[in-house]
Amino acid sequence: MSKNLGSFSRIDTNVPVKSRTIFTSSFALSSEPTVNQLNNENEKVLPGVKRIDFLPLDTSFNSSEEAYKSKSTAELARALFVFQLTSFDPLVKHNIQILKFLRRIFGKRLFHYVMEHSFYGHFVAGADLHSIKPVISRNMQYGVKSILDYSVEEDMEEEQAKNKTKMSYDEIPMEGSLVSQSTGSRANEVQYEYHEKFGDRRKDVVSARTYFYDSEAQCNKNMMNFLECIDVVKETTDGTGFAAIKLTALGRPKFLLNMSRVLTGMKETFEKLTAKETDIVLKRIRSDMLSSSLTHMGIPVSRDDSKQWFTWLDVSDQGEIDLYTWSNLLKMQKPLHNFFTVPNLEEGKLESVLPRLSPESDTELKNMLERINKIAEHAADSGVRVLVDAEQTYFQPAISRLTMEMMRNFNKEKAVVFNTYQCYLKNAHDNFIIDLDLARRENFHFGCKVVRGAYMDQERERAVTIGYEDPINVSFEATTAMYEKVIDTAMKEVKLRQPGAVAVMAATHNEDTVRYCVQKLKDLGIKREDKAICFGQLLGMCDHVSFPLGQSGYSVYKYVPYGPIDEVLPYLSRRAMENRGILAKVKKEKKLLRAELKNRLLPNRGGNRQSNVKL
Q1: Is the N or the C terminus of the chain less surrounded, counting Cβ atoms within 10 Å?
Q2: What residue stretches are annotated with the Proline dehydrogenase domain (predicted)?
Q3: Hey, which residues does 349 pair with through a beta bridge?
Q4: Where are the alpha helices (DSSP H) in 414-475?
């Protein structure tokens, strides 16, 4: 990633003074203190600055004025134009082909001008560090902070994506033959196997970026992009922002697939060995009971072998193993294929659950782990927080486990690394409480992003096609209930632990979910200025929720993509597709935009600007 990619002129952001409400911010457009600054009750006020309480939050989210105070009239017109275009199905369906055609017909200069004043200008902050600063600064003045993501994506056809995936799985050299890999029930194991039909992981996914493995050099380049994104966050957000990363960008996906299969199988085995205890977070295995338990299950293991195996896993030297230490991934003193040895309860023996990797592949896996560690270390040193995105279920156990290891190492003083929990999954709450329990017991700060999920259609088709249990909740309502259950548990933990020990981001565009979180804070007596929970939405979407929250003193973030126009077209394509899939929400935003434009352009006919729009 280059920081000298050039910048493009942006639409005039001047807003009439009477419609501006400015937050105290190191990014104020003027260095002079303004009269109308919003402050919480504990915040110091500069000399000559009048204290104004936070605006009360209208949880109907129907006020066009509160939604668009930060926007110029030109920006409102652009937003309405973009949303109107995304309402035309044929246009959205073929959007990437249309954009490429326009680029050829218009030429680079005219195409950039058109995109700057339409889709790119609406959904992307800018090309580089210089051009994104005004967007970040202005949003901060209205209480909205930033999650930065360098959103350059490789544009490739489906067949090319499948070939890249197949290559990344086929080219892992092994010594000798593939050993048995049975760690649990066969129905669950097939979930963690490669299937060519699903080689293009972008299929049916519109709200998440996909990385494809190309080479170790490309993984290093991806790591450098993440490191530079952290630097941009540090430079532009004054320590308030996040950087977003994906672990599939940092190594062969098959490593994550194998790790996930191992973790899932080991969890099944652990639950069988500790069947008497029903609460997963309370389950423990002691050294003196491991050998007898295995023997009772028909697995003849010598005491020496049992003791050696237990010692490998008991990294904390506590004399007992919980689920987390049972499935420890990062003990690197031995070759990885030796470490991944577990009881096969069906065949009654201990066996390796990974192929015997060649020294080269063992090095590749270690390099992947080192890249992950380097990113977390750089973020901690830079004072920047990192959101690790969730991905498909067949990768997620490994991604979550590696993220928790990063938390364990770097979240000792504050929440630097955040894990993501997808609440459309049936096991979302179970996984959440296991991780929460580990953070509590080992006394590190726990950071979490709570989302609904981005891969539902793909996950369901894969489960039906391959033949394992659908991991997705049965309905939208069940996912909502799961989301609220996770939020409830998180908020209770916030009350139990010291301030700042638990940090929660509710990343959602769902108004009912936002209202639920706001009410939960009130019910538990958690002040909004405590910043125990923050909200997250995408740049260019859901402004009618983000900005009223920010102007009312709640901690809220926009996911802010940046990158050169020609290289973010796949991202823009996905945003267009996503808007088509949420027509009801876009319909409301269009009504609010029309109302605010009418208020500004025809003030005598617009009625009372404080009134809500009837929807």
Answers
A1: C
A2: 138-587
A3: 344
A4: 428-442, 456-466
Q: Show the low-confidence residues of the chain (pLDDT under 70).
A: 1-53, 171-188, 269-357, 580-584, 605-615
Radius of gyration over every alpha carbon of the chain, rounded to an integer in angstroms = 26
The Cα–Cα gap between 173 and 175 comes to 7
Displacement of CA 540 from its chain's centroid (Å): 18
Tokens coding 18: 């009477």
* 3-class SS letters over 397-420: HHHHHHHHHHHHHHCCCCCCEEEE
Contacts of 198-204 spanning 24+ positions with Cβ under 8 A: 198/458, 198/462, 198/465, 199/161, 199/162, 199/163, 199/165, 199/166, 200/158, 200/161, 200/162, 200/165, 201/161, 201/165, 201/392, 201/458, 202/161, 203/158, 203/458, 204/455, 204/457, 204/458, 204/461
Phi, psi for residue 149 in degrees, rounded to 5: -145, 125
Retrieve residue 449's tokens.
Answer: 């992003």
pLDDT digits (tens, 9 = 90+) for 178-223: 333 444 455 567 888 888 888 888 888 877 889 999 999 999 999 9
For residue 352, the 8-state DSSP code is: E
Q: Which of 22, 58, 36 is nearest to 612 (CA)?
A: 58
